[in-house]
Amino acid sequence: MTAPTADLLFTDGPVYDPGQPAPRPDAVAVRGGVIVARGEAARQLAGPRTRRVDLRGRLLIPGFQDAHVHAVFGGLELGQCDLTALTDPAALLDRIAAYAAENPRAAWITGAGWSLESFPGGLPTAAQLDRAVPDRPALLHNRDHHGAWANSRALELAGITAATPDPADGRIERDARGEPTGMLQEGAVGLVARLLPELRRADLDAALLRAQRLLHSLGITAWQDALVGRAQGMADNYAVYRDAAAAGTLTARVRGALWWDRGRGREQIAELEARRAAGRIGRFEPGTVKIMQDGIIENRTAALIDPYLNPAAAACGCRDGATASADRGLSFVDPDLLPGYVTELDRLGFQVHFHALGDRAVREALDAVEAARAANGESAQRHHLAHLQVVHPDDVPRFKRLGAVANIQPLWAAHEPQLDELAIPVLGPERTARQYPFGDLLRSGAALAAGSDWPVSSADPIAGIHVAVNRSLPGRDGEPFLPGQRLTLAEAVTAYTAGSAWANHLDDTGSLRVGAHADLAVLDRDPFAAPATEIHAARVEAAFVGGEEVWSG
Ligand SMILES: [Zn+2]
After folding, report:
1. How far is the CA of 230 from the centre of ligand 1 (A)?
2. SS3 category, 127
3. What's the CA-to-centroid distance between 331 and ligand 1, angstroms?
4. What is the pLDDT of residues 453-469, one digit of tens each?
5. Which residues surround ligand 1, an ion (CB under 5 A)?
6. What is the pLDDT of residue 288?
7. Per residue in 430-442, pLDDT tens?
8. Helices assigned H by DSSP within 103-176
9. From ligand 1's centre to the CA of 525, what distance in Å?
10. Per-residue b/e over 293-332, b at no fewer than 16 CB within 10 Å?
11. What is the pLDDT of residue 145?
């Protein structure tokens, strides 16, 4: 009896194993959805029904895994007024007006993707938006989704006036007389968003499949959805994943991070447990809880250890009452309660995924993980902190010590107007030099995972890897941003494959070892063989999950 032959055989080209310094020529054989042999042993499994993939001029890697993405919301936005490609205010308003004209029956005009840098202080006005959408309410999230731009009709329907107080977790931007100007930050967005027409379930199902197609086309074979549940007036995407997993239409492996409602406390944990138990189906595993501990620097909702500088206060007139020296941003979950919550979640076997962007949020999250480790010992839970824009040097070595994963969004670590004009001036030079310290974290021994935060920024892992290596955006080879924090190409690809697989608790993926799932991506070239400035040019030719081709370009 002869040995069964391979279903799929990759030969004659470079193969990259995460953790290695560079690819080497090799062969990889796949049978029954798993990698069954490498090298000469793989080549011997060629048979008449084996599909052969010639790797000459290409590169085989494990599929990318995005450790922080909002796939369903990204998929929804692909179908709404998409402003991501535009920066000029007049062009933005033209696009919005055109979208409104194309959708005469839409009760609301919704969309996202405009950039803060398009408007002075990141603050467009309702009056501007009224000119594009005079007849209906409109609500347009900015690119980072930490704020939204409303027109006068939307403010009116929400009853937002000079007399409306700011919610505890957000801010209504106002003019000198206290009148709302049309820009809503963080939790204030919910005052309008809760009025949006309920999305139909079919819209959400379609959004997931649209997103999955895009993510597979970028070589992504697994991801962690960083917000599963209902937050701030957004649609609940939990059943969308659960049902897609049950139906087999979910081809990606997805770790779901169940949303921690910061308006409630411990009493929600039983609900989270019930959701985890009922949602663990097929390729969906909602075994994570997402705790959003702060906001972002640009609107001063990120939690900082030392106060924000406030050079623009006079110009934007938006900080009535608050003095610069008092403003350290927001902790969305009470830092005195956070360690207790995390300890309990850890004890119950939940992984905790923190949004921790400012240095105080990072410290509060690490303190909470430390409390959990002290109370429960070394649990198997790979708690992780995403975003890490500013990390205090004292906290860098704590990641390794606590077994906390650094979940990086590398695309953000480059000079671009939002960083240069809105973040750096309020951070000042010392904290500016502590931004996105990927190199320091890696050298300290921290495990790195990587993700995009799409639709906040592009979902393309190759673009993220390009920035992690160059610390400048593709095609904009200006001065690198903190070049001492660069990763090598090998380190960046490892973070985006094996590192994210670790954070996703998908231990049979992120690797090309014999026995691993055949979750793979084929690139159209070998970026290791070209200058670093050309990394971004690589494209994904094919992606496989469990040996099944899910994308071919
Ligand atoms: Zn996010």
Report:
1. 14
2. helix
3. 16
4. 999 889 999 999 999 99
5. 226, 453
6. 98
7. 999 999 999 999 9
8. 126-132, 152-158
9. 30
10. bbbbbbbbbbbbbebbbbebbeeeebbeeeeeeebbbbbb
11. 82
